[in-house]
Write a structure and sequence with these properties.
CATH superfamily of the largest domain: Histidine kinase-like ATPase, C-terminal domain
Largest sheet: 5 strands, mixed
Oligomer: single chain
Number of domains: 2
CATH architecture of the largest domain: 2-Layer Sandwich
Distance between the termini: 80 Å
CATH class of the largest domain: Alpha Beta
Length: 429
């Protein structure tokens, strides 16, 4: 039974307040009857002390919702008791101390807490000095009441600050956990988009090239059968390259931590797969397009410089995407790839001749069916570069990309306030 009563008191704030008020009345009423040694008895009857204690303890029943009203009633009861000549002890001031603690705990403004506390101290000390017995020691009139009033105020303020600190720590921990989960989801989404883009580049662009080579093969079968073997060899090379890159890209999914460490074949951290293509394979790439009927010429200006693995892959993919777009959507029979090396960046240009007069019009891309130019632009931005694409003044189409070299690329990525590269949407040819 006692255990059930204790459980009820812990779970019910109203039961806690009622129990506190009854216990305080049990000690504050006898405490209000004490008098200092050698001092005369108060002129007021004893039942007035009981009434004041009852009012003061009853005020604590609503100290949670109305802390100022509870403090006002308990202060008034303590001042009235002091005016009757009764000695203010820690027992008689118990209800007032609880009210001060509750008020300090539930009041946000420090100045308001201090003003109320010192106001109560001033009232009690003035009442003791004016209405208290003249032969009562001065320390009982001043030091005692001031100490019992300021102590619960300081304790309530300290508990409030402690609770605010714990709430702030808990909020920061929840925010950090939420941010960590959001960051993990963002990285997973970026990695999925990056792998999707790589899969697209490996499959769609190689398949587009293979389709063009197959069309050339069908044409040669009718007029130049002696060149069929060469086209078949090029077609086999194209499909084997597609299978090899597809295997490398899918193999990334089998390695744990790929998204957090190497960032796969594109590598926003400046790394790439050991088998990722780069400008070193540019000759093979242009040869495959020549076999599909596109005359590709490559020119280099300046002294070739080493690119970061991510920039090297980006340059290769931009050339591959641009030449694939020429093969699919343009009537041009020739394209030029120009590599211009400067001290801090590589300027990469892919341009076509615009086709010949009387040729069939270019095949426009399906509306909403791809993001080829967007994908190339996002690839360039991911390594700290930029890309522009549009019609040439003399006819044809030009893609121009500027990619930073070596230390410049690292400096751009580590620049304060630089935005991390976002995962690009899958590019479409």
């Amino acid at each position: 039974m006692i255990t059930n009563w204790q459980r009820h008191v812990r779970s019910s704030p109203r039961a806690q307040d009622t129990t506190t008020a009854l216990l305080l009345f049990a000690v504050s009423f006898p405490g209000s009857l004490y008098v200092a040694t050698g001092s005369p008895d108060p002129a007021a009857p004893w039942w007035t002390a009981a009434l004041l204690s009852c009012v003061s303890c009853a005020a604590l029943l609503f100290h949670r919702d109305h802390p100022r009203s509870a403090l006002a009633l308990t202060t008034a009861a303590a001042v009235t008791s002091a005016a009757q000549g009764r000695l203010l002890t820690v027992l008689s001031l118990g209800p007032l101390m609880v009210a001060l603690y509750s008020f300090a705990l539930r009041t946000e403004h420090n100045a308001l807490r201090r003003s109320y506390a010192f106001g109560v101290v001033a009232l009690l000390m003035a009442t003791e000095l004016i209405a208290g017995p003249a032969d009562r020691p001065l320390d009982l009139k001043t030091v005692g009441p001031a100490a019992w009033v300021l102590m619960p105020t300081a304790l309530g303020s300290a508990v409030r600050l402690r609770r605010a600190y714990l709430d702030a720590v808990r909020a920061r921990a929840e925010h950090a956990e939420r941010t960590r989960e959001e960051e993990a989801r963002r990285r997973v989404a970026e990695e999925r988009l990056r792998i999707a883009r790589e899969l697209h580049d490996v499959t769609a662009q190689h398949l587009a090239l293979a389709n063009a080579q197959a069309g050339t093969l069908a044409h040669l079968l009718r007029g130049q059968p002696d060149q069929v073997h060469k086209i078949l060899a090029d077609l086999a090379t194209t499909t084997s390259a597609a299978l090899r890159e597809l295997k490398d890209t899918v193999g990334l999914l089998r390695h744990e931590g790929t998204a957090d460490t190497t960032e796969g074949t594109e590598g926003t951290e400046g790394t790439s797969s050991p088998t990722a293509p780069g400008l070193a394979r540019l000759a093979d790439l242009t040869a495959s397009f020549r076999s599909a009927g596109l005359d590709v010429t490559v020119s280099t200006e300046g002294e070739p410089r080493q690119l970061t693995p991510a920039a090297d892959l980006t340059a290769f993919r931009i050339v591959q995407e641009a030449l694939t777009n020429v093969t699919k959507h343009a009537t041009a029979k020739a394209a030029r790839v120009r590599l211009a090396y400067a001290h801090d960046r590589l300027t990469l240009t892919v341009a076509d001749d615009g086709g010949t007069i009387g040729s069939a019009p270019p095949t426009p891309p399906v509306p909403g069916g791809g993001f080829g130019l967007v994908g190339m632009r996002e690839r360039a931005q991911s390594v700290g570069g930029r890309l522009r694409a549009g019609p040439r003044p003399g006819g044809g189409f030009e893609v121009r990309a500027e990619l930073p070299l070596g230390e410049t690329a690292s400096a751009i990525r580590s620049r304060p306030g630089a935005k991390p590269p976002s995962a690009a949407r899958p590019s479409s040819t």
